[in-house]
């Protein structure tokens, strides 16, 4: 089961036909039929039944559409939250490690910090050259 298959199902439910869903999604009708067939195989139950010239969701189809809508809502919320964090400068961790004698990028504190950040899925942006320049010009006392 994929998010794309769930999008197809939700659109079929909304429009009531594979052809209309295909038009809305920008697909050809056989692609929608294929995605629905694969989704029904994955679920192990029919999701739609023919009613006249249209389609109607089965009980399983209704359950899956309800969950698909929740998934889409969670995805939109995640997109908005991530965009907000990125817009406010989040996502970048700057770290400097100082020793008693000089600025280093590989001392023990940095090693542990890098290990911890890597375990969190984060990375350290290197600033050694900028720190060395500031030390050389006296902007930072040695």
Q: Any overview of this molecule?
A:
The chain has helices at about 5-15, 20-25, 30-45, 60-85, 110-120, 130-135, and strands at about 50, 55. It is mostly helical and about 140 residues long. It starts with a helix and ends in a 5-residue tail after the last helix. The model is unreliable at about 100-105 (pLDDT under 50). It has a two-stranded antiparallel ribbon with strand order 1-2.
Produce a short descriptive summary:
It comes from Actinacidiphila rubida. With 142 residues, the protein is mainly α.
Task: Label this structure with key terms.
6 helices, Arc Repressor Mutant, subunit A, mainly alpha
Q: Which CATH class of the largest domain?
A: Mainly Alpha
Strand portion, in percent? Answer: 5-15%
Number of helices: 6
Spatial arrangement of strands, main beta sheet: 1-2
Question: What number of domains?
Answer: 2
Mind telling me which CATH architecture of the largest domain this is? Orthogonal Bundle
| Annotated CATH homologous superfamily of the largest domain | Winged helix-like DNA-binding domain superfamily/Winged helix DNA-binding domain
Shape: elongated
Output the helix-strand order.
HHHEEHHH
Helical fraction: 55-70%
Arithmetic mean pLDDT:
79
Distance from N terminus to C terminus (CA atoms, Å) equals 59 Å
Summarize the biggest pleated sheet: 2 strands, antiparallel
SSE class: mainly alpha
Which residues sit in consecutive blocks of at least 5 with pLDDT less than 50?
101-106
Compute the number of strand runs. 2
CATH topology of the largest domain: Arc Repressor Mutant, subunit A
Rg, alpha carbons? 27 Å
């Amino acid at each position: 089961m994929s998010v794309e298959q769930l999008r197809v199902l939700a659109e079929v439910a909304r429009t009531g036909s594979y052809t209309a869903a295909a038009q809305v999604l920008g697909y050809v009708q056989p692609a929608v039929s294929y995605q629905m067939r694969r989704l029904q195989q994955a679920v192990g139950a029919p999701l739609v039944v023919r009613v006249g010239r249209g389609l109607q969701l089965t009980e399983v189809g209704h359950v899956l559409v309800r969950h698909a809508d929740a998934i889409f809502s969670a995805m939109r919320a995640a997109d908005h939250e991530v965009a907000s964090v990125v817009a406010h400068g989040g996502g970048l961790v700057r770290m400097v490690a100082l020793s008693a004698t000089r600025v280093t990028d590989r001392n023990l504190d940095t090693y542990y910090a890098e290990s911890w950040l890597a375990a969190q899925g984060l990375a350290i942006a290197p600033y050694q050259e900028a720190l060395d320049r500031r030390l050389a010009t006296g902007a930072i006392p040695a």
